[in-house]
């Protein structure tokens, strides 16, 4: 299957993507994860991305389009399909993705749109913790790791600080509608209620993907 997962920052894209790849064996491509890996390795692209990401701004389209195009052209994608998380995030990126997929002879099959009231998201992001060793995402209150966990084994994302969160939400709300409209016009969008327990959200996504498979 060739899929997108969309939703505002903190909607649960990464949480659900981890569950989807566990069950449906598609390749998870998260542009945010790719940028964070480049930042950790202090590559030229990572340093450039950091100057945008820490403030909550979008990395310029030409950079983001380039890394996605390169990743989609790799061999594993034709065999397994993909689940793109966090891309496209501007309408120009959506057009670039259309072109890339057309050139590769790949058809987009569905867009999972996790719908959630933005007022819920600050709490989600401020409580997010990530396991240092596995990279797995948890939440201090909504999805805590095992009881008695050691806080030192977890970290918080730089861009989950209040100033960056405010900017991320503004930017993503402003850019999101034309992208969803673009995919609605192609009849690809499946809306999922995001303000439910993680397992319930996943059950709703599973229903959609089982039909698409
Ligand atoms: P990215 O990493 O994609 O961040 P984001 O879109 O802001 O989304 P998040 O990863 O913060 O949230 P999520 O929806 O994955 O939520 P999660 O599952 O973790 O991008 C980061 C930055 O990189 C961007 O700001 C930009 O600068 C740059 N970038 C990336 N892509 C780009 C692009 N295409 N173009 C330009 N720039 C780009 O869940 C959040 C928390 O909530 C967790 O703690 C989780 O445990 C909890 N939670 C999840 N689901 C539930 C639930 N149902 N109930 C209760 N809690 C829940
Ligand atoms: Mg994420």
From TrEMBL:
CDD domains: ADK (cd01428). It is found in: Cytoplasm. Keywords: ATP-binding, Cytoplasm, Kinase, Nucleotide biosynthesis, Nucleotide-binding, Transferase. AMP binds at residues 31, 36, 57-59, 86-89, 93, 157, 168. GO terms for cellular component: cytoplasm. Belongs to the adenylate kinase family. Monomer. This is Adenylate kinase. The lineage of its organism: Bacteria, Bacillati, Bacillota, Bacilli, Lactobacillales.
